[in-house]
Structure formats: C-alpha cells, structure tokens
Specification:
The protein is mainly α and 372 residues long. 60% of the residues lie in helices and 2% in strands. The chain contains 15 helices and 2 strands. The chain is globular. The relative contact order is 0.18.
C-alpha cells in the first residue's frame, strides 16, 4: 500500500479517506473521490466507495499527490509555520507592554503580576490545545469556518461576531496606545506643547481614527502588504524591546527588585478591583490565537503549523512578559519607579522607545484588520 503525504494529509492506495472522516466534506469529495470521475477511476476501473476501497493502482505514483493538492489548493500555499507564529505574536505584542506594565508593577508588586501572567499563560495554553484539536479536524480557512463547522451556523456565527468585534476593539486599543506614546514623548520634553491637538482625548480620537482608516484602505487595496508590514513590525518590535530592556537593565539592582516584590499596601489589600486591573491589561497581550487559523488557507502544512504557532506564541509571550516585569521591578526602588520609565529610559535614547512603540501600535494592527 503506497502512502504519500501532501502537506499534513495522507493518501494511500487503499483510500482510507472515508474512514478518516473526509467523506462528505469540501464539496462532498474525499481525497480518494477526487481521483474519480463518474464513479470510475482514471484507469476506467469501477470504484466501490461503499467498501472503503478505491483501486488507484493504475497511473503514475504521483497522481494521488498531484490531484489531492489541486483539490485542496495546496500548491498555492506559501506560508510556513514561522509565518503563522509571527502573525500571532504580532497580534499579542503591542503598546500595552511598553505603556502599562510599569504601572502594574507599581500598583500590585512583582509577585502578584507574575502570578497573573502565569494564570493567563495557563488559560491560553488550554485554549490553544482545544483550538488546535478542532482546527486540525478538517481544512478550515478562517476563524468563521472553524467556528461554524464545530458549533453550527447559529452559534458559530454569533461567536464569530464576538470574535471580530473583539479584534476590532483590540485594534482600537493599540492605536490609542500609539497616540498615547506620542503624547508621552511630547510631555517629557521641556519645550513645546504636551499634546498634538487640544487634549489627549482629541489626539486619540482624531489621530487614531485617521490611522485606522489608512490601515483599512491599505488592507483593502493590497492584502499582501499586511505580510510585508508584519515583517517590518516584528523587526521594530524586537529592536524596541531590546532598547527598553537595555535601558531597564542599566539600573538593575537586587535591592530595587526586593522592594518591588510585594504590593505597596500588602497582600491583604489585593482585592477584586486590583486583580481585575491586572487582568484587564495582561490578558489582551495573549489575544490573537485565531490569527494562525485565519492564515490556514495560505499555510503549506496547516495541520502542523496551526498548533505549533498557537502554543509557541503563547509560551513565548508568557516567558517574555515575565522577563519584562522582572526587569522593570529591578530598574528602580519603590517610590522612584513611574509608569512610563520602561519606555522613556530606553537605550540609547528615549526616542528609540517612543518611535518603536508608535510603529508597533499602528503597524501591528494591520494583522487584526484582516480578521476583524
């Protein structure tokens, strides 16, 4: 029995497609049925689908591979696992990290912040495993198809609507964060105004709306530009992260770390309000699991790439955020640490951190707009 792999699917001469659950999907054709026309094989032999066997012994060995790839469009897929991983991380890593994590350490202490990060990581690992299980149970080319196939039309459509609204809200938050970074840079200067317009509220409304419209137009007229922008954003993100971490590590001190371990008012003061504040800013940093599913139609091996991209991005984000809050806590003692120190104390200049944050905030939202 000849076995050939195409992408992450299998096709063999005994045509076990019906046994694997392929029958009745994707136009009612399994990979084995795609090899037949009018109930006959290419060699003219009568095919018996009821028996679960299809005689495809005739013809060149590569015929099942070529036909199956043509049936599922596998030959047109060019993205790798790293591309799916990059898109997912691009959605997870945003301006919240640079603007708000200093305030989280100040208000709740390092240990509680690390505990919340670990909780969010564990929840998203479970979500990744569950999503990978259903994402690999059939060929889905997007979050909507995945949800409808597993939940039905009514619940799948309703859940998809919530997902798209959530991604739109995430794009809005990141755009507002990019504008806030601009205002933070202006406020740190001794000369000039503190805001672009009359107030930060109008800055976020006017400049943020203009940036969202431009990204939407770019996505509509040139969808391939999203991948190009994604590569640029990832490079800028890594450079900005390296710059801000280098700035925090320049003043690294174990005594500062110890002073920021516990909440300023003690563990007993940590109630629902304080914990909800932490989850409000940390959990969105793990959003974007479905981004790899949205790229499934473009992945060479979706059955392999989707689970690896999801789990890899969640674990990478959890470890990365933990290292960041440790660096922030050790950069200055309690009482001297401010919310924007991580951004404004970037090495070699604060403008590297500010400029990188603006680029990340605006550019990374391009990955949200295709899904939203």
């Amino acid at each position: 029995s000849r076995v050939q792999r195409y992408g992450s699917y299998e096709s063999d001469s005994s045509s076990r497609g019906a046994e694997k659950g392929w029958d009745g999907r994707y136009g009612g054709r399994s990979p084995a049925r795609a090899l037949f026309v009018g109930g006959k094989s290419r060699s003219g032999t009568k095919a018996s689908f009821g028996s679960g066997r299809a005689p495809i012994r005739a013809g060149p060995p590569s015929a099942p591979l070529i036909l199956a790839r043509s049936s599922f469009g596998m030959s047109k897929r060019g993205l790798s696992t790293f591309d799916a991983f990059m898109t997912t991380c691009e959605t997870m890593w945003g301006v919240i990290i640079f603007l708000k994590f200093g305030g989280l350490v100040i208000s709740s202490g390092l240990l509680v912040t690390l505990a919340v990060i670990a909780t969010c990581t564990a929840v998203q690992v479970l979500n990744s495993l569950a999503c990978s299980a259903v994402a690999t149970n059939g060929l889905h080319s997007g979050a909507y198809q995945l949800l409808v196939a597993n939940l039905g039309t009514t619940w799948g459509t309703a859940t998809s609507l919530l997902y798209y609204l959530g991604m739109s809200a995430l794009a809005t938050v990141e755009i507002c964060g990019a504008v806030e970074a601009v205002d933070a840079g202006l406020e740190a200067e001794a000369w000039g105004p503190d805001v672009v317009t009359e107030s930060q509220y109008y800055d976020e409304g006017l400049l943020g709306s203009a940036a969202l419209v431009l990204l939407a137009l770019l996505r509509g007229f040139n969808s391939h530009a999203v991948h190009v922008i994604g590569v640029v954003v990832i490079v800028v993100l890594l450079l900005t992260l390296a710059s801000t971490l280098a700035g925090a590590l320049r003043t690294f001190s174990l005594s500062s770390l110890q002073s920021n371990l516990l909440p300023p008012r003690g563990e007993d003061a940590m109630g629902y309000t304080e914990l909800s504040y932490l989850f409000t800013f940390i959990y969105p940093c793990f959003a974007g699991l479905f981004q790899s599913v949205n790229k499934a139609a473009e992945l060479r091996t979706p059955y392999v790439s989707v689970p690896r991209a999801m789990l890899g991005a969640v674990l990478f984000t959890g470890i990365g955020l933990s290292l960041i809050v440790v660096a922030i806590a050790a950069s200055a003692p309690r009482g001297e640490l401010s919310e924007t120190d991580f951004l404004l104390h970037a090495f070699p200049s604060k403008y590297v951190g500010l400029g990188g944050t603006v680029v990340v905030g605006i550019g990374s939202r391009g990955s949200c707009l295709p899904g939203a």
